Amino acid sequence: MSQEPVSTETVSEETLSSETKHENKIMTKKLVLVAFIMLAFGFALVPLYDVFCEITGWNNSLNQGLAVYEEQEADTSREVKLRFVTITKNDMPWDFRALQSTITVHPGKEYEVAFRVKNRAKNNIVGRAIPSFSPTLASQYVNKTECFCFNQQTLLAGETEDMPMRFFIDKDLPKEYKSITLVYTLHNVTEETASLNIDNTVAAN
């Protein structure tokens, strides 16, 4: 009779262990689902961002297009410091940096800077740089006559390239703007580009 409590306790532990395993399986399935959703969202981030900006006008730099620079007298009485910040998303196997992190400019004068990228992957990668400004309204006064950010960029495995950006600051820039930060966030759009090419091929046939 003294062994019956031991038997009862053993059954309870086995039952608890079974319930714990069941809960762990459910939790694992949930985590896998969350990871899948996050991965899918990451692939859709760039096009969704573009649509959001197009609808809201939040980031005017995406829709500016190339500006045309006309020779003019620079406003040498004013100096504006332009800072360049580069961000590479986690799934992007590129090194990405501005060759000049800061530049001091005069409104009305055209300047050129370059950004260096290197593809560390063993396969070709397509990237796209999304610009943003701080303060945000400064984007209305930074005119780009040439920029890698207007197009997707493809690098072969191990390839390094210097990508130019030519720009000028509008002389109408409010005088309180003495410093502007231009941030480029680099996204990996290799899979999206491949899918688009397949869709276009199917549509053409």
- Identify the CATH homologous superfamily of the largest domain: Ctag/Cox11
Structural class of the helices, strands and pairings? alpha+beta
Count the domains: 2
Strand adjacency order, main sheet:
3-1-9-5-7
Shape, principal axes of CA atoms: elongated
Number of helices: 2
> How many strand segments?
9
Q: Classify the helix fraction into a percent range.
A: 25-40%
Cα separation of the termini: 82 Å
Low-confidence stretches: 6-11, 51-63, 198-205
What is the C-alpha radius of gyration, as a whole number of Å?
26 Å
Main sheet characteristics = 5 strands, mixed
Name given to the CATH architecture of the largest domain: Sandwich
User: Which assembly state applies to the chains in this document?
Assistant: single chain
Range of strand content? 25-35%
H-E order: HEEEEEEEEEH
Annotated CATH topology of the largest domain: Ctag/Cox11 (Pfam 04442)
CATH class placement of the largest domain:
Mainly Beta
Q: Residue-averaged pLDDT, rounded?
A: 79
Question: Could you walk me through the main structural features you see in this protein, from its secondary elements to its overall organization?
Answer:
By secondary structure, the chain is α+β, with helices and mostly antiparallel strands. The chain has two domains: 1-58; 65-195, Ctag/Cox11 (Ctag/Cox11 (Pfam 04442)). The chain is built from two helices and nine strands; from the N terminus they run αβββββββββα. Strands 3-1-9-5-7 form a five-stranded mixed beta sheet, with helices on one face. Mean pLDDT is 79; it is low at 6-11, 51-63 and 198-205.
